[in-house]
Structure to design on (351 residues):
């Protein structure tokens, strides 16, 4: 097992779950994160005083900053999660997605390659550059079928196009320069420390206070949900045991329509924190204009990850969602400042 892991984007939703998990396994972690609006060091409070954890505030587009971090920390492997990640924001402002997701990944690959070339033979053989990506690169499914690793890329949003571009760069740096890369494409994550502009936390927080629950279009869009801590474990397994040049799909096999996700959250909250002044929370649901180009359905075939690397998710959607609702009820200090600043404004209408 690698002993020193550099994680980019470790202050984000998934990155912080990866860092918390890694510190629990006893390895040294350097979190390299620019702290954009989505980065939050409060998500790392449980590990930030651990001597194995360190943090550098840096931008993956800054070659010198990346080089200094690699040369001083000397990682055995790199897990690259830093990105602009919100589809609606990519519709309103694609430039930041091109800069960070494409140019930033290019820059990181160049610096990782320079660093890797200077390692001795044993360290070179053990090194991995793990690029963390999304199933959205595959486009949209109809009623049937699953995304497999060999499904052709067909990204539809500026976000997914920028991630697809970065996946291709990673592939090319392996084939052209021999950099030992691994790639993973995952479905929608949910769980603790999720930024309150995303569907599940936004619905929990609005339903809690009796505010309207906006659902895009008719709510028929299907996503394959994965509990974030299950994803973090899968990522560490892929980074440490995946084969160079390979990609792995990660998914929980939990397909749900958006409207059913929202209804389930209402039912859980009605049960565990009933409020007579709010009543039945389903009545708060209202349908709003759909996201332009909204993909109909994503669903993952994770057979390769399961059979080749031995991964299985621990949470079902029901157990994971219940845990998540409880977490938001118990961690108001974490979400309140973010919810006050960011929740509610409609983004991504392309108007
Ligand atoms: P996030 O938006 O919560 O976090 C992104 C982190 O990257 C933040 O801490 C931010 O400060 C940092 N960052 C952004 N630009 C940076 C830059 N230029 N330099 C350094 N740091 C920068 O994202 P997330 O949901 O945790 O997603 C992490 C990764 O996983 C992304 O690459 C995303 O594409 C991928 N992914 C996400 C999901 C999901 O459901 N959230 C699913 C599959 C894949």
């Amino acid at each position: 097992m690698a002993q020193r892991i550099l994680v980019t984007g470790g202050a984000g939703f998934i990155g912080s779950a990866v860092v918390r998990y890694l510190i629990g396994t006893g390895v040294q972690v350097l979190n390299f994160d620019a702290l954009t609006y989505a980065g939050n060091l409060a998500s790392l409070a449980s590990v930030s005083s651990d001597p194995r954890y360190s943090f550098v505030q840096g931008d993956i587009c800054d070659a010198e900053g990346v080089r200094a971090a690699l040369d001083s920390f000397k990682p055995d492997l790199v897990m690259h999660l830093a990105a602009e990640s919100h589809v609606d924001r990519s519709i309103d402002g694609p430039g930041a997605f091109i800069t960070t997701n494409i140019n930033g990944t290019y820059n990181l690959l160049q610096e990782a390659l320079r660093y890797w070339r200077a390692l001795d033979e044993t360290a070179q053989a053990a090194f991995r550059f793990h690029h963390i990506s999304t199933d959205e690169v595959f486009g949209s499914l109809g009623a049937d079928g699953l995304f497999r690793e060999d499904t052709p890329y067909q990204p539809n949003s500026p976000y997914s196009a920028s991630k697809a571009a970065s996946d291709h760069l990673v592939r090319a740096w392996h084939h052209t320069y021999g950099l030992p890369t691994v790639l993973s494409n995952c479905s929608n994550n949910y769980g603790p420390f999720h930024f309150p502009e995303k569907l599940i936390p936004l619905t929990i927080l609005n339903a809690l206070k009796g505010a309207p629950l906006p659902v895009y279009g008719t709510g028929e869009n299907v996503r394959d949900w994965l509990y974030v801590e299950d994803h973090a474990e899968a990522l560490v397994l892929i980074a440490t045991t995946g084969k160079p040049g390979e990609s792995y799909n990660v998914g929980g096999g939990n397909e749900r329509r958006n409207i059913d996700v929202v209804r389930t959250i209402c039912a859980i909250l009605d049960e565990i924190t009933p409020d007579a002044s709010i009543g039945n929370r389903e009545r708060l649901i209202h349908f709003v204009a759909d996201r332009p180009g909204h993909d109909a359905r994503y669903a993952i075939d994770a057979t390769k990850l399961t059979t080749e690397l031995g991964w299985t998710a621990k949470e079902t959607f029901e157990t994971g969602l219940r845990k998540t609702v409880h977490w938001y009820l118990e961690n108001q200090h974490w979400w309140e400042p973010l919810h006050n600043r960011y929740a509610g404004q409609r983004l991504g209408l392309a108007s």
